Amino acid sequence: MTTSVVPPVAEAAQPPKGKPGQEGGATGGAGWFTYLALGFIVLLWVVPTIGIVLTSFRTRDDAAASGWWELFLKPSGFADMTFENYQKAIQGTNLGEGFINSLAIALPATFIPILVAAFAAYAFAFMKFPGRDVLFVVVVGMLVVPSFVSFVPMLRIYRDLGIGGTFPAVWLFHLGFGMSLAIFMIRNYMATLPMTIIESAKIDGASHFQTFFRLVLPMSVPVLASFAIFQFLWVWNDLLVALVFLGPGENAPMTVSISQLLGQQGQNQELVTASGMFSMLLPIIVFLSLQRFFVRGLTAGAVKG
């Protein structure tokens, strides 16, 4: 007669105990200080924007007589708002021509650096050549060089080449000073892509050109969109570079045209705010259309592990 021995049943693993609102010992939510800090930062951004929006709809006399915040104390002032400032800004000035010039500057100055930087980032991420790491450090180190230090030598070079005061002069300048950030962002993102896919492409006989355009570039859309937002907003809102290399004239972008509206004594303040709101429409559309790629493109290459 045999006796069966039943093995003892292992006790179920107990989950780690923690305080209410915590999971695994980690904090479950943000504290009140975090919400206060975020609310304060939001106010710093929202309040001036509200002031610009309200001032753009006020007449010159109302804007000169009282501040925009007094509308909340006397709500009857909302009845006096008008679209006249927008009509004057668009029809009475060269704002429409400045809008076309801004597009002619911002679009090439955004897409050309992305294309060139994507090639360079692929080389830094997947190709091995002597001095690769040193060259990458040098490229990233160029981020600390301020753009204004090159104004005088670049103006001389453009004068010798005969392209001073033209769109290619601004394109080349934004291309040179936007490349470092573009290569840094795109290379870090490409370094997180699965190497098995790249190696499989090599085994199948794909060249670097085919691997770049058919595999790496489609998988790098989030970081390309993230940099496109940064570069487009920087070029679109730029005043200093446009003023130095283009100046007032037929090629002047919106930023230069808007700066010419404001008088020395603060005249045409209402036209400046209306023009500013008009110039904000396209950047807002660009950001909203690409925002789903924004965070993913920025954070994907931040930590590799």
Question: What would you say this structure looks like, in words?
Answer:
The structure is a single chain. This protein is mostly helical and 305 residues long. It has 2 domains: 35-82, no CATH class; 88-299, MetI-like fold. Helices cover 65% and strands 1% of the residues. It is built from 13 helices and 2 strands. The protein has helices spanning 32-56, 60-65, 84-91, 95-126, 132-141, 151-161, 167-190, 195-203, 208-219, 221-236, 240-245, 254-261, 269-299; strands at residues 22-23, 26-27. Strands 1-2 form a two-stranded antiparallel sheet. A hairpin with a 2-residue loop joins strand 1 (22-23) and strand 2 (26-27). Helix 4 runs parallel beside helix 7 and helix 8 packs antiparallel against helix 9 (208-219).
**Strand runs, count:** 2
Q: What's the CATH superfamily of the largest domain, by name?
A: MetI-like
Mean pLDDT: 81
Physical arrangement of strands within the biggest beta sheet? 1-2
Number of domains: 2
Query: How many helices in DSSP terms?
Result: 13
| N-to-C series of helices and strands | EEHHHHHHHHHHHHH
Instruction: Write down the CATH class of the largest domain.
Output: Mainly Alpha
**Helical percent range?**
55-70%
CA radius of gyration is 28 Å
Which runs of at least 5 residues are low in confidence (pLDDT < 50)?
A: 1-7, 9-13, 18-27
Q: Would you tell me the structural class of the helices and strands?
A: mainly alpha
Largest sheet: 2 strands, antiparallel
CATH topology of the largest domain: MetI-like fold
Task: Please identify, by name, the CATH architecture of the largest domain.
Answer: Orthogonal Bundle
Shape: globular
Cα-to-Cα separation, first versus last residue: 59 Å
- The proportion of strand residues reads under 5%
